[in-house]
UniProtKB/TrEMBL annotation, chain A:
GO terms for molecular function: proton transmembrane transporter activity. GO terms for biological process: proton motive force-driven ATP synthesis. The lineage of its organism: Eukaryota, Metazoa, Ecdysozoa, Arthropoda, Hexapoda. This is ATP synthase F(0) complex subunit e, mitochondrial. The keyword Transmembrane applies.
UniProtKB/TrEMBL annotation, chain B:
InterPro entries: ATP5MG_metazoa, ATP_synth_F0_gsu_mt. GO terms for cellular component: mitochondrial membrane; proton-transporting ATP synthase complex. This is ATP synthase subunit g. Belongs to the ATPase g subunit family. GO terms for molecular function: proton transmembrane transporter activity. It is found in: Mitochondrion membrane. GO terms for biological process: proton motive force-driven ATP synthesis. It comes from Leptosia nina. Keywords: ATP synthesis, CF(0), Hydrogen ion transport, Ion transport, Membrane, Mitochondrion, Transport. PANTHER family: ATP SYNTHASE SUBUNIT.
Amino acid sequence: MADLPYGPPVRVSPLIRFGRWSFLTAGILYGAFHQNRLSKREVKIREVEAKEKAIRDEKIKREKAIAAAAELKNLEEMVNKKD
Amino acid sequence: MAGAVAKLPSLVNSAIANAKPKFAIFLKYAKVELAPPKPSEISQIKAGIAKLLSSARTGAWKQQTVKQATLNTLVGAEVLFWFYVGECIGKRHIVGYNV
């Protein structure tokens, strides 16, 4: 230990070291657990969103078809009026 | 620009050469100061916890100097932050949860 430039290492209290390591392991376990829980929840949300998207796409398609038909009808009326 | 890019490997090499002895010193200190508690120290840990609890119960923690209280708070915060380091390792992402 003679080659240490800042003096001998501090004797950190065992309680502090125990606290550090136990908090570290608790954090790792909590992080893994919470990650798992959140990703499961997110998978469910994605499934619901996929179903809703199919319904919404269908609805938008129908509305677009109706709007296009109405526009065509308007145009035809305008053209016919000029004659 | 080309010159700066050409100098990059030698810069990196000298940075590594500089960092190596410092890292060795860090390791020597860390092996003592950051070591996980040994089974033989369990009695000391128990005594420490008992001391904490008794000081919380008797109100002895209110009879500290400001310096002691500041140091204890900082040490407590450092110990607490290890939890968040562990959380980042456990969720395998640095900011937020990657779901």
